[in-house]
Structures are given as C-alpha cells and as structure tokens.
Amino acid sequence: MKYWEDFPADGRWVVHGEHELSADEIVRFAREFDPQPFHVDPEVEGPYDGLIASGWHTASLYMGMYVRDVLLDSASMGSPGVEELRWLAPVRPGDVLTGRSRVVDAWISERDPRRGTIVGEHELVNQRGEVVMRMRARGFIARRPA
For all residues of the chain together, what is the average pLDDT? Predict the structure, then answer.
C-alpha cells in the first residue's frame, strides 16, 4: 500500500502502461459518448483527414492505466478535480499510447493532518513520441498511519 509519503514531488516520470487503439474501439466509444462525425465515420471529410479518437476516450484510457498501476495499490481518497486537460494531437487507429505521470507538488492538509494532497502532471504519448494528451490534477492520499 502506498501512502502520501510514497509520492515525492521530485518530478520523476513514472510509466503506467500502453494501449493500442483500433478503429472499432474508437467508433464504439464515440457512438456511446461523443458521436461527432470525425469520431464515428472513417470516411468523413473534415478537419482531421479521417477517424480520430475522442479526447474523452483518451482521458478514459489514461485513467484506466493510472488507476490500475497506482491508485488501486494506494490509500487514495479521491480527487477535488482536474485543473487542466489538453488534447494536443489527434489520436488515430493504430496509435500506441503510453501513459506516464509525475508528482510536481505535495502538501499535508491543514484541515485533516491524516491526509495530504499531491499534484500530478499526466500525459499520453504516442509511438512517435508526441504528447497527445496532458492533464494536471490533484489527488487526496491518506498519510501513513503512525
């Protein structure tokens, strides 16, 4: 079990896994959650020259990587929210996305000294080394019991 003390704000990147997207997966997600034409129609004429994944899809993929690799084995107490979420490049069928994060700030709660806050920078990077999604978010983590 990882506690707040195990998340130093040292800026070191930690890799959480990778995922290759298929056209079927992109369309399936988009039909249910973000049915814009460039997410559901591979033949669409538009600004992206073909099918691209919804940004919400990429954010969900990243979250799954992070939860499985970090949060399930931590004393996570949730999050007060995301401060920034940016989609920086289109994600296409066949792209292999690698999730990574780093802790850039951390402090003990003034209201409840049994927990602390971490601020993380989170990214998805494609097989060409392009950052396709960047997010900055806070997380509440329980402190190690005395």
Answer: 97
